[in-house]
Every structure is written in structure tokens, then in C-alpha cells.
Specification:
This protein is an alpha/beta fold. The protein has nine helices and eight strands. Bound molecules: adenosine monophosphate (AMP). It catalyses: AMP + ATP = 2 ADP.
């Protein structure tokens, strides 16, 4: 399957994407993770991306699209993929359509994760991510690690993402409403959108998502 995951920051896209990709046996492609990997390797792309990310803004389309295209063209993505955080505006959605058209392939579904604003703010404020593997995500109140600051899964150090600070979160939410939400209508016109609630226990949301995707 070829799936795009959308939803506001803090809706649980990363958590659900990891689980869904595993169940569906397709690679999880997160542009946010790709940028963070570039930042930790201190590449030119990482240096450029960091200034936009720290402010809560989108990294320019040109570099983002090139990076996403490069990743989607790797051999493990031939049979399908789950895109998490890409596309993030209508121009990126257009670029993705062009790429898919060139390859003669189509998206199967756009999964829209819905969560109320006060809830996503709470989730982001308490979010702690593992430095070794960003798929290992905890929350100081909702899913605390056994030992503070240490990842239960691999023992890595838990940290708060630079862009999870309160002021940056407000910008990210605004960017989501003004730039990303319009892609939901763009894909709705193509009959691809399935919307589910992102509220409730992680397992329940995953089950809801798989159920919604089974109709696609
Ligand atoms: P995420 O991990 O998806 O929350 O992304 C973190 C940050 O990376 C975003 O706030 C943006 O600054 C940047 N980013 C991730 N994906 C994109 C994208 N498709 N277009 C532009 N910027 C992006």
C-alpha cells in the first residue's frame, strides 16, 4: 500500500506510523526523521533545516521534495510506503502526484488523524524521544519510562525535541492549519481521505487505523 499520514503535531503520527508500517510491511518514511538524522550528522542539509525547524516553520519545498523523492526511490519502497509528515503543503502534494505519475503508481489512502488542540499541546509538552531511535517515544505523564530520562526499549537517552517548546508548538499548529490542512481537501477531491480520531490508547488508535485502511 501507498499511504500518506496527516494530522497536527502531537496527534501521534510518528507512533502510529511506526506501528502501521510494521503491520503492513512497508517502510515508514518520515521527513522530520530524515531532517533530524541530517542534523545529527551535521550535513549541509541538516544545518539548513535546523533553522526552520527550531522556529516551527516548514523547510523550503525544493530541498524537502528532493530529499523525500530520493528516499521514495530506494528499493525498499518499491512495493509501498507510509509517508509521515510529507507532503505538508499543496505544492508538495502536487510534486508527489507528479512523481507517482512518472512511476505509474497511485496512492491508496490518506489517513487523517484528528485530535483536539488542547490535547495535542499537552501531548507535545510532555513528549520525550529517544536519541538512539526516534520511534521510541514516551510522555512524562501518559507513558512515562520506568527510569526518568532513559529509554525502556534500548537504554538510550530521552530528550525533548528542540521544536517541542511551547512557543514553537504554537507556530507549528498555525503552520498546520494554514499550510497542511488544505492538502486534506486536495486529497478528498481524489476520494483518498479516511479520517479517524487519534484519541484513546495507542493500540486502539492503531486498530481504528487498520480498520479504516482495510476499506481502501
Ligand atoms: P515532524 O517530525 O514531522 O513533526 O517534523 C518536524 C519539523 O521538520 C517540521 O516542523 C518542519 O520544520 C520540518 N519538516 C518535516 N517534514 C517537512 C515537510 N514535508 N516540509 C517542510 N518541512 C518539514
Amino acid at each position: 500500500m501507498r499511504i500518506v499520514l496527516v494530522g497536527p503535531p502531537g496527534a501521534g503520527k510518528g507512533t502510529q506510523a511506526t506501528r502501521l508500517a510494521e503491520k503492513l510491511r512497508i517502510p515508514h518514511i518520515s521527513t522530520g526523521d530524515l531532517f533530524r538524522a541530517n542534523i545529527s550528522r551535521q550535513t549541509e542539509l541538516g544545518k539548513l533545516a535546523k533553522s526552520y525547524m527550531d522556529a516551527g516553520n516548514l523547510v523550503p519545498d525544493e530541498v524537502t521534495i528532493a530529499m523525500a523523492k530520493d528516499r521514495m526511490e530506494q528499493s525498499d519502497a518499491e512495493g509501498g510506503f507510509l509517508l509521515d509528515g510529507f507532503p505538508r503543503n499543496v505544492s508538495q502534494a502536487g510534486a508527489l502526484d507528479e512523481l507517482l505519475q512518472t512511476e505509474g503508481i497511485k496512492l491508496d489512502a490518506v489517513l487523517d488523524l484528528e485530535a483536539p488542540e488542547d490535547e495535542v499541546v499537552k501531548r507535545i509538552a510532555g513528549r520525550r524521544v529517544c536519541r538512539k531511535d526516534s520511534a521510541h517515544v514516551f510522555h512524562v505523564t501518559y507513558s512515562p519510562p520506568k527510569q526518568e530520562g532513559v529509554c525502556d526499549v534500548c537504554g538510550g537517552e530521552l530528550y525533548q525535541r528542540d521544536d517541542d517548546s511551547e512557543s514553537t508548538v504554537r507556530t507549528r499548529l498555525e503552520v498546520y492549519h494554514t499550510q497542511t490542512e488544505p492538502i486534506i481537501d486536495y486529497y478528498r477531491a481524489q476520494g483518498l481521505v479516511v479520517t479517524i480520531s487519534a484519541m484513546g490508547p495507542v493500540d486502539e488508535v492503531t486498530a481504528r487505523a487498520l480498520e479504516a485502511l482495510s476499506g481502501k
